[in-house]
């Protein structure tokens, strides 16, 4: 039998720690779980656990992210997948309240049953996320990033809604959008989950589905106002050779080498990506690269919050309405470095326009996403010349 490489050994150790932590958190809850007990379950020393994860909370977030990512999705269109905004929001709510990790799932479902086409979690796993919001609420350093992640989720829902039902423009008025409706939907869904966890049996999950369907027709006078006084993008000509990455929105590898706008935003600035989305010419590929100075906690939190919502979106909306925005995590800073952006942290705001394997424009600071998206060159600029 071939000996494992160092990287393979490290990966196996990390997987063993995650499996042991999942069992410990499921049995005892986050607060009562002990790192020593996790190490004992994994057959490792306490030091070995800390060499992979700097603390119990980082380990907890990693466990939740892994559970969300391995949750099986449906093969093919989900029953009731929406082709109108109301149908899609109903399907989104139905997928949300019946997902394996949802505290709002039918409390009468026994463990080991199947919800839709997805296998139900093992005993204890369904309530494993119960301590997530208390942890976020208790730490100011987490509240800002979590708010920004919800803003990003709302934008993803809004883009899917706008693809299904393009907002009717008003003469002389700014472009209309669906972000406020999306925030209302997410408030309803997150509130339902929290209520179901605190008071099991109080709510009927499918009343939440009906409520979200009706939110599609809510008029909130929502429009997009571009930022004021943003700095212009600078023209550059540098190589663009990014490393591989995974797109959280579509749950598949992301080809970062493709032409388009790449926004590098720290976890305190994620909502700024809408500037690129609204300013870029139709058909422009846009990628959000999430950077952070706290990758051990904020990368798995990003994977959890964006990945879980995106999986529900993929099941609720037809593929052609999925958000075109791609979201990738850059915990090591390697993608940012490939774009010439160094020292990226949670307040970073920068963007580049890439084409033909080159970085063509760059901007940093407030308004960077809008500046680069507005300066995006026409496709013909990169077309090969005749002859």
What can you see in these coordinates?
The protein has 387 residues and is an alpha+beta fold. It has three domains: 6-70, Arc Repressor Mutant, subunit A; 85-215, no CATH class; 234-377, Glutaredoxin (3-Layer(aba) Sandwich). The chain has helices at residues 6-32, 35-42, 46-52, 56-70, 85-98, 132-138, 140-164, 179-198, 205-215, 273-279, 295-316, 334-338, 368-374; strands spanning 114-115, 118-119, 234-239, 245-247, 252-254, 260-266, 286-291, 326-329, 349-355, 358-364. The strands form three sheets. The chain has a six-stranded mixed beta sheet with strand order 3-10-9-6-7-8. Strands 1-2 form a two-stranded antiparallel sheet. Helix 5 (85-98) packs parallel to helix 8 (179-198).
């Amino acid at each position: 039998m071939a000996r494992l490489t160092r990287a393979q050994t490290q990966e196996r150790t990390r997987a063993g720690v995650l499996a042991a932590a999942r069992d410990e958190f499921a049995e005892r809850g986050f607060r009562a779980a002990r790192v020593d007990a996790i190490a004992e379950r994994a057959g490792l020393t306490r030091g070995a656990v800390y060499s992979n994860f700097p603390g119990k909370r980082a380990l907890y977030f990693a466990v939740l992210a892994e559970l969300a990512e391995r949750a099986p999705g449906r093969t093919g269109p989900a029953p009731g997948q929406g082709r109108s905004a109301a149908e899609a929001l109903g399907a989104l709510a139905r997928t949300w309240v019946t997902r394996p990790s949802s505290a709002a799932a039918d409390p009468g479902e026994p463990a080991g049953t199947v919800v839709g086409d997805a296998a139900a979690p093992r005993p204890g796993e369904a309530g494993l996320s119960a301590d997530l919001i208390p942890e976020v609420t208790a730490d100011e350093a987490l509240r800002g990033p979590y708010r920004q992640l919800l803003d990003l989720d709302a934008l993803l829902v809004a883009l899917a809604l706008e693809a299904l039902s393009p907002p009717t423009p008003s003469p002389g008025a700014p472009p209309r959008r669906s972000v406020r409706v999306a925030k209302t939907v997410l408030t309803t869904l997150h509130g339902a989950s929290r209520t179901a966890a605190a008071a099991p049996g109080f709510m009927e999950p499918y009343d939440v589905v009906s409520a979200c369907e009706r939110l599609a027709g809510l008029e909130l006078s929502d429009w997009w106002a571009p930022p004021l006084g943003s700095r212009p993008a600078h023209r550059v000509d540098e190589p663009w050779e990014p490393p591989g990455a995974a797109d959280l929105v579509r749950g598949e590898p992301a080809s970062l080498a493709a032409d388009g706008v790449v926004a590098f935003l720290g976890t305190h600035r994620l909502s700024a990506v809408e500037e690129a989305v609204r300013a870029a010419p139709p058909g422009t590929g846009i990628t959000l690269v999430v950077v952070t100075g706290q990758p051990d906690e904020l990368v798995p939190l990003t994977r959890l919050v964006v990945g879980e919502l995106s999986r529900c979106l993929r099941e609720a909306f037809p593929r052609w309405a999925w958000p075109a925005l791609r979201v990738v995590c850059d915990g090591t800073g390697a993608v940012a470095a490939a774009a010439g952006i160094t020292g990226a942290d949670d307040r970073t705001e920068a963007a580049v326009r890439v084409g033909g394997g080159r970085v063509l424009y760059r901007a940093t600071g407030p308004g960077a996403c809008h500046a680069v998206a507005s300066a995006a060159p026409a496709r013909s600029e990169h077309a090969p010349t005749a002859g």
